[in-house]
Amino acid sequence: MAHVITGICLGETYARCAGVCPVDAIHPGTWRGEPFMVIDPEACIDCDVCVPECPVCAIVSTVEADPGWAKTNAELAPQFKKNPPLTPRPADDPPHKPGHKLVR
Ligand code: SF4
Fold it and tell me: What parts of the chain have a pLDDT lower than 50?
């Protein structure tokens, strides 16, 4: 089991989740030309701390909630974990993409 970052993160990467993860399981990168972050399923301990940190609600708590993005997180994690961390965006920074809404 692991938490999963979904496509709502694409183009947003608030990166607030990575700063609170106690096991450094969240890593940034680029996927299909857009900034994205993933959760390494090998490292995640399902503590749930990252979920309320995401202003656009991009993180789901189970693989079953979004199996497609869970597969993408698992596939990208080995390469993304080599990337340096991002500076988090403020939680009230408006989303970059139309259709995304601040929900926290
Ligand atoms: S659930 Fe906990 S361990 Fe897993 S990515 Fe989120 S903060 Fe890290």
Answer: none
Per-residue tokens: 80: 């993304």
Dist. CA 58 → ligand 1 center (Å) = 13
Atom of ligand 1 nearest to the CA of 43: 3
Give the residue from 51, 53, 21, 26 showing the smallest Cα distance to 41: 26
77 Cα: distance to centroid of ligand 1 (angstroms) = 14
Establish if 28 belongs to a structural domain. yes
Residues with CB under 6 A from ligand 1: 3, 20-21, 23, 25-26, 39, 44-50
Q: Which pLDDT belongs to residue 1?
A: 82
Q: What is the CATH number of the domain that holds 33?
A: 3.30.70.20
Let me know if residue 99 belongs to a domain.
Answer: no
> What pTM does this model have?
0.96
